[in-house]
Design brief:
The structure holds 2 protein chains of 2 kinds. Chain A is mostly helical. Chain A has one domain (23-400, 414-443): Formate dehydrogenase/DMSO reductase domain (Formate dehydrogenase/DMSO reductase fold), CATH 1.20.1630. Chain A has helices at 2-8, 21-35, 41-65, 80-91, 93-104, 114-130, 132-135, 156-180, 183-190, 196-208, 216-249, 261-287, 296-327, 330-340, 345-364, 371-398, 423-443, 452-457, 461-475. Chain B is 31% helix and 13% strand. Chain B has helices at residues 3-6, 35-44, 52-74, 80-97, 99-105, 134-143, 178-182, 208-212, 255-259, 265-269, 295-301, 327-333; strands at 120-125, 153-158, 164-169, 188-190, 196-198, 218-220, 248-250, 275-279, 284-286, 292-294, 317-320. Classes of the chains: A mainly alpha, B alpha+beta. At the A-B interface, α8 and α14 of A face α5, β2, β3, α7 and α8 of B.
């Protein structure tokens, strides 16, 4: 039986021990989405599934009638699907940032967020990749991209394909590696449950290696591998959006031929990626009652990371438009003018306000520097950056290349193309948007929502968690996230005493292969801030530095 | 390089040097009929497809030579004799690079060991064009295209003196085609007569080529309702009728017509005789009025230009200006980094 094997999965020399209350609390919270089915779960899945189904119908219509039903024409030959492709692959960068970059910088406060961030990357990247299907005019011949005799290696489309596929593989590995240590815990919690899902879950855990023994050396090996992959994921992430930008920048079209594009695309991806992590973390925190582990300070810190990228992106936008507009070359001046004052001024300035100015303002003003503020800013960023991708893709495509700038109308002379939205691309885009929460709900039906092992390894873990429980218990009725009448923390007696410990702690060990054990400093203490309160650090350093050791 | 001087560029007159038939039958059956063309034909032989190890150095040499020739092309006057050598080099490079492509691309394409006997080109005499768009109509009728699919389109341009003039734009059949380089699956290829074609049974419809083309000469098949099926028609790359939904299409130079001694549809349909079909190897150009001219002389004498030379695409379509048109200045302004 899988159950018995699961029992052996812990370290046998220790045997099942009664877990301290804090540890138990973490495990209960991490496994709650797996073990309990909230009342909203099925309705949410059905609604999201319906939206996805509508998108599939729209795609089927497009397949039968041609790309023309999506509003495309010979001048708007690239439009919404290309923007979607860039935007959806872009938002997957949040996982890379939170997990890899913050891991490498030893920002241990990120620990409770990593699983959610990595899961977000895991589901957004395939969804983004899928946009290649509606993008193609003849998707039935997509196999030619994986058929080496047909490859034209000088084509940027093929580079895109390779880069994104590699990145997908890295994302899957990066999701899986930290999960290994959690599998025995998850398997033990699921043991003894009946039902199809529990059985599937057990099968999945076994397939992923929950019955493998994790000694100290193996734990260290995994830690080292995580460090290694964390390093590899960063250049990979940079390469993916750089290469995506080459598809535009390698053409001679004014507005596409921009040397700034690779950087521009990567920064936009990181920016929107962080924003999606904020939204996903906020949603999970609320829906799965993770207020004990994820608290306002996390959002404020992510908010600062967010606006750092936002400021960088604003700077790059400014540079691009200034230089292209200033050069006065007809082709460049034409699309700059179309963007700033011409027919695309509404989307452009919407981007500028919603993803440029407002997030900076929200984070600059202390009163708005709250969970709600950061989530608002992030939602704006996600939407506005999608609009910005449209502004990047469409105007240069619609620009006429055979024309006389000397004609009446000056640089805007000639037969400019147009793109009109139809219900088809809107449905497909909405379907992809709905697919992300849908897939996340499914993923968290099987995977602990918090990285149990990673959090338990943090030095100050037990002490801080105990304190956190105290604070949460005291403030639970007041907390906006905690539903009244339902204790956030189950009594310790509810815990299964058969839980295997996660293994001997590697605390104090010299680190993994590369010395990147996750965090020596504690994850953010709750001493300095209560629940639901704007971040007012006292006793610890202000945002940022406290956790950035 | 004595052959360069062998051919006196001024020798044959503008009219009727090789007969006045409207068809391009100056070079029937693959062996060159005209004496002057054969003199240079012998120079073209080494550029054909033979053993690899020697062709590498030869190719690089030809490329060097081509660079010089390219510089000449960028200028207004075209030294066509020099240019011919460049054309051969470009052809060799094209087939060598896309060997796999051309192999599977079109069944009609001959994988011949002998060098190609034609290098098709086009001359558009803007002095004669009145902008009637008969060329567009003829092309669309012959290829069953929608009104939007203007494989040859007539744009209205404005000269530096403010005068408007019509500007027919077919596919330029570039010797260095940007569309070919960006196609991920080799659906676009350049056949051995220098014509860039699309294999619509392979095109995946990514439209990268549409982004790459500086002449906006590619048209997509967007709608199922407008792709007219023509019964009994077997479409191939040289005559892609009917067009396939979800693939890209473009001017094929009517290369099938040319090889059968007929004019392309646009040239045949031009009531003004403004469009000349030309063959670089046999050095002739013919229009619908039966005007047959020696290509090199015709271009030289009339200061022919190419469109957007700064894009470095080396078009095989030349324009003859003459009414104060300023095509070069117009075009180069569209190009980042170009200087007029």
């Amino acid at each position: 039986m899988p159950d018995e094997q699961v029992h052996e999965a812990g370290s046998p020399e220790r045997g099942p021990t009664a877990l301290p209350e804090a540890r138990e609390h973490l495990r209960v919270a991490a496994m709650r989405p797996v073990l309990e089915t909230p009342r909203w779960w099925w309705p949410a899945v059905i609604v999201l599934g319906a939206v996805v189904a509508l998108g599939v119908v729209a795609w089927a219509v497009q397949l039968a009638d041609g790309l023309g039903v999506a509003g495309y024409n010979d001048q708007a030959f690239w439009a919404v699907y290309e923007a979607d492709l860039v935007a959806f692959i872009g938002v997957s960068y949040g996982g890379a940032v939170v997990s890899a970059i913050l891991r490498l910088t030893k920002a241990t406060w990120r620990a409770p967020l990593t699983r959610i961030a990595e899961a977000t990357a895991l589901v957004t990247l395939p969804v983004g990749m899928l946009f290649i299907v509606p993008h193609l005019g003849s998707p039935q011949r997509i196999w030619e991209l994986v058929w080496p005799p047909y490859w034209n290696l000088s084509s940027p489309i093929l580079w895109d394909f390779f880069a994104v596929s590699t990145y997908l593989l890295a994302t899957v590995i990066f999701f899986y590696l930290p999960l290994i240590a959690d599998l025995p815990v998850a398997a033990a919690r699921l043991a003894g449950r009946s039902g199809l899902r529990a059985r599937c879950g057990r099968l999945l855990y076994r397939a992923l290696g929950s019955d493998r023994e994790l000694g100290v050396s193996k734990r260290r090996l995994i830690e080292g591998s995580i460090g290694l992959v964390a390093i590899m994921v960063i250049p990979m992430a940079v390469s993916v959006h750089s290469v995506l930008s080459f598809a535009f920048a390698s053409s001679s079209r004014p507005g596409y031929l921009e040397t700034i594009f690779p950087v521009y695309f990567v920064v936009a991806a990181l920016y929107s990626g962080i924003a999606l992590v904020v939204v996903a973390v906020a949603a999970c925190r609320r829906l799965f009652h993770l207020e004990t582990f994820i608290h306002p300070r996390h959002f404020v810190r992510l908010g600062f990371v967010l606006v750092a990228f936002g400021a960088a992106y604003l700077y790059l936008t400014f540079t691009e438009y200034l230089i292209d507009g200033y050069s006065g070359t007809a082709g460049l001046a034409a699309w700059v003018r179309q963007d700033l004052t011409g027919r695309y001024w509404i989307p452009f300035w919407f981007y500028f306000v919603a993803a440029g100015v407002v997030p900076l303002m929200i984070m600059a003003v202390r009163r708005t520097r709250t969970v709600g503020g950061v989530v608002t800013a992030s939602s704006l960023v996600i939407g506005a950056l999608w609009v910005k991708r449209l502004v990047i893709v469409i105007p240069p495509a619609t620009e006429p290349l055979v024309r006389s700038p000397l004609a009446a109308g000056g640089v805007l002379a000639g037969n400019w193309g147009t793109y009109h939205f139809t219900w088809v691309p809107i449905s497909i885009t909405l379907a992809a948007t709905a697919a992300i929460p849908l897939l996340l709900l499914v993923v968290f039906r099987f995977v602990p929502i918090l990285p149990i092992a990673e959090m338990e390894e943090l030095e100050s873990y037990e002490e801080e968690l105990a304190e956190a429980i105290e604070i949460t218990a005291a403030s639970a009725p007041l907390s906006p996230g905690g539903p009244p009448g339902r204790p956030l923390i189950p009594p310790a007696s509810a815990c299964a005493p058969v839980d295997p410990p996660i293994g001997p702690p590697v605390r104090g060990a010299p680190g993994g292969v590369l010395g990147f054990t996750p965090g020596q400093a504690g994850w953010p203490s709750l001493r300095s801030g209560g629940m639901g309160v704007a971040d007012t650090p006292t006793g610890r350093q202000p945002f940022g530095l406290g956790g950035w050791r | 390089m004595s052959w360069l001087t062998d051919l006196d560029p001024g020798e044959p007159g503008e009219n009727g040097a090789f007969g006045a038939s409207p068809g391009l039958d100056a070079c029937p059956g693959g062996s060159c009929a005209s004496g002057s063309a054969c003199a240079t034909d012998t120079c073209l032989v080494p550029a054909g497809t033979d053993d690899d190890d020697s062709s590498v150095s030869r190719r690089s040499f030809l490329r060097l030579l081509g660079l010089g020739a390219g510089a000449a092309v960028v200028g207004t006057g075209v030294g066509l004799v020099t240019y011919r050598e460049y054309a051969a080099a470009a052809t060799t490079n094209g087939t060598a690079k896309g060997g796999m492509v051309t192999g599977g691309a079109a069944a009609s394409m001959a994988d011949q060991a002998s060098p190609p006997t034609h290098q098709w080109a086009m001359v558009i005499d803007l002095r004669s064009c009145n902008g009637c768009k008969s060329c567009t109509a003829a092309c669309q009728k012959a290829h069953d295209l929608t009104p939007d699919q203007t494989w040859i389109d007539v744009f209205t341009m404005t000269s530096s003196t403010g005068k408007e003039y019509p500007f027919p734009r077919p596919c330029m059949q570039c010797e260095n085609p940007p569309c070919l380089h960006v196609c991920p699956v080799h659906a676009t290829f350049r056949q051995d007569q220098g014509v860039v074609l699309v294999n619509q049974t392979r095109c995946i419809g990514c439209r990268m080529c549409m982004a790459a083309c500086p002449y906006q000469a590619r048209y997509f098949n967007w709608n199922a309702g407008t792709v007219y099926p023509k019964t009994g028609q077997q479409a191939d790359a040289e005559f892609p009728v009917p067009q396939r939904l979800g693939t890209v299409g473009k001017c094929t130079f009517c290369v099938g017509n040319l090889n059968n001694g007929l004019l392309s549809e646009c040239a045949a349909g031009c009531p003004m005789g403004a469009i000349y079909n030309a063959d670089i190897i046999s050095d002739v150009a013919v229009n619908s009025m039966g005007n047959t001219v020696k290509l090199s002389t015709f271009l030289d004498d009339n200061d022919a230009v190419t469109f957007k030379p700064s894009q470095n695409t080396h078009p095989r379509v030349w324009y003859i200006l003459g009414h104060g048109q300023d095509l070069d200045a117009d075009a180069s302004q569209d190009t980042p980094g170009a200087s007029s």
